[in-house]
Amino acid sequence: MTPRTLDHTDTLELPVTGDGEFNALHTFWKPSHYATGLEAHTQAHSWRTFRIDNLVVGVRLRAEGRTVIADVYADGDFKPDQRQQLARRLVSSYGLDEDQAAFTELATRVPAMRQALTDLGGMRQSCPEDHFEIAVIALLLQNVTIARTTQMTRNLLIHYGRLVRFDGITLRAWFTPNEIAHVPPETLKEQDRLGFRAKSMPHYAAYFRDHSTEDLQAAGNLMEAVQEIKGVGPYTAAVIASHASRDPAVFGIDVWNRKILAHCLLNADDAEPQTVMARLNELFPGYAGTAGLYLVEHSYLSRPVAPLLAPDQHALARWSASLEQEASA
């Protein structure tokens, strides 16, 4: 598969308006995030793809003080309303308007949080994915290792997503609900190796095809709304709600982060999800989700799942060649 070239079309300058410190590196790059090919990071720059309407958009991000500079590349006419849509999405995706001061004040009082706050202070929750993309990731994370999730994600993106090149780097881009809704469960199971998740994927695609982002944002209770999807239970709904609504009080507990939080907060090897959430809510009222994020990301900081790339053209070329080779296999 030959990558489609995206042309530079705009540059956005987005101020960080939320109170508190801003840590650009750890807002854009999370040590716990597994490699998808949708984004790449060095110490100073991040690259990411987005789907805006029918456009594939690539963005190079960097920060100058409390301003995020986003160089925008697109595969078609980038209209003014799409510019506004992308700007809103970047602000929301990286929490540029969120108040960190209240969480920081709480966190400084909790000994278990002090080192994480020292190393990651100013980190915002980052979620560049839209509601559908978040739901797919949550599905692929169910009861499985990171290696297995990475394999399933790679299969779906290679078979149904896009491969694009901009600013000297190659990245993958998501598929839309329409672009995968027609794929039968048998193909998803056998070709894409989704296992039991194959039966759920068409239901996910159909739901998000028929419910716009605006519809979901207007839902009174997003957790309840997405549980209308066959195959979505409380855990998956919590992941979708916590990331999509950016609710700092919500956190999706799974078998992996549960053990991390039990160790940090309860001095135990493991604990029931309800016990972990109760402790988070006790220590960080109103900010259990943010606290969980800080503790989990800090646990991966010394051994990130997808390390930063070296800041040179050779590293970017190797990255790009690897993605292009996978797409052609």
From TrEMBL:
<dbReference type="GO" id="GO:0140078">
    <property type="term" value="F:class I DNA-(apurinic or apyrimidinic site) endonuclease activity"/>
</dbReference>
<dbReference type="InterPro" id="IPR052054">
    <property type="entry name" value="Oxidative_DNA_repair_enzyme"/>
</dbReference>
<comment type="similarity">
    <text>Belongs to the type-1 OGG1 family.</text>
</comment>
<dbReference type="InterPro" id="IPR011257">
    <property type="entry name" value="DNA_glycosylase"/>
</dbReference>
<dbReference type="GO" id="GO:0006284">
    <property type="term" value="P:base-excision repair"/>
</dbReference>
<protein>
    <recommendedName>
        <fullName>DNA-(apurinic or apyrimidinic site) lyase</fullName>
        <ecNumber>4.2.99.18</ecNumber>
    </recommendedName>
</protein>
<dbReference type="InterPro" id="IPR003265">
    <property type="entry name" value="HhH-GPD_domain"/>
</dbReference>
<feature type="domain" description="HhH-GPD">
    <location>
        <begin position="140"/>
        <end position="296"/>
    </location>
</feature>
